[in-house]
Amino acid sequence: MQKYVDAGLVSGLAAVILKGTEVVDVKTWGHADLEAQTPMREDAIFRIYSSTKIITSAAVMMLHDQGVFDLDDAVADHIPEFRNLRVMKPGATAVTDTEPLQTPPTLRQLISHSSGFTYGLFPETPVDKLYTEQRIMDMNSSLAEMIDKLAALPLIFQPGARWNYSIGIDILGRLIEIWTGQTFRDFLRERLFEPLGMVDTDFHVPEAKHHRLTKNYQPLDLRDNMKPGLKPCPDLLIGSVLAPKRFHSGGGGLVGTIGDYTRFIRMIVNGGEWNGKRYLSEQAVALMHTNQLAPGVQVRLPTWKMPDTVFGAGFAIKNAPAAGEPASAIGEYHWGGMAGTHSWIAPRANLAGLIFTQRAYGFWHPFSHEFKRLAYQIAGDAK
Q1: Which of 36, 66, 348, 349 has an alpha carbon within 20 to 30 A of 142's alpha carbon?
Q2: For 2-63+183-379, which CATH superfamily applies?
């Protein structure tokens, strides 16, 4: 990993390897702040962006365990504002060119990114453009206000027809508020962060911890992810993480340390229980890494190739090993964040790994693939 630091591709890295639930290696490389020459530390705080999604999905499945909802419930049964949703016609170029829903989107489709909602991150449709223009995820708004904006926009395909990375997990954050009467942030803190000891995970970094926040960088050339050179990257998508904000994004808003996230991952690896406390049933954890997509539907991202991949109630699931990986990588479940915070669990190899950096865009970057290949070679069981 040092070669990626030396080449100016990442500023610094932190990594953890697990055999079963046992931490067998912890390592850091490089700097948390290049300009200040601050070394990367084990308790550095990262913007984990879409690694937030796995935590939100786990929180949702905790309520599924309580019988609060069924995965095949229509979303509109719980969010009445969505009762009149429409869908863009195939090939439409205007957001007004819509058709009725064939079937309403379900919670199963919402958590697996197959509901027809989009994100605005990839400008593939006129609806994506509106997500950006209307600031659907305005950091000065609330999750309830987000729902009102979404209700006025069409879906981009009929629910279940395909996979599309979406705002669905942020909608689930609002559903947690509706179901529990708590704020989304309070629910996460009381049900997950405090009991698991995730003391540095939140939607902002308190002033006393600002010195531990890793600086975010971006490549000098966004078109070539292996071209050396970095420059500081502003916090555009989720706003500043240095002070509290109204919008608590279940899809990408959390900050935290690799140690905190390791506690969460160990609980998942252990079937939903940790240190004598059960957070999730074994059945709920299994649903998180069991395909929830319709037959024939697979993960499709416009920017990154992710072949032979389906999606569960929280995790992507790999149905074939990537280049250089053993057969025991089949069934690996994983996800990561835009700035390069990756975690993965491989049951057949009895292995899990986490590697964090702050490089926008560091998702699906070669550093994380090489780290995983090396971990399989060094520590993975062959099954």
Answers
A1: 66
A2: DD-peptidase/beta-lactamase superfamily (3.40.710.10)
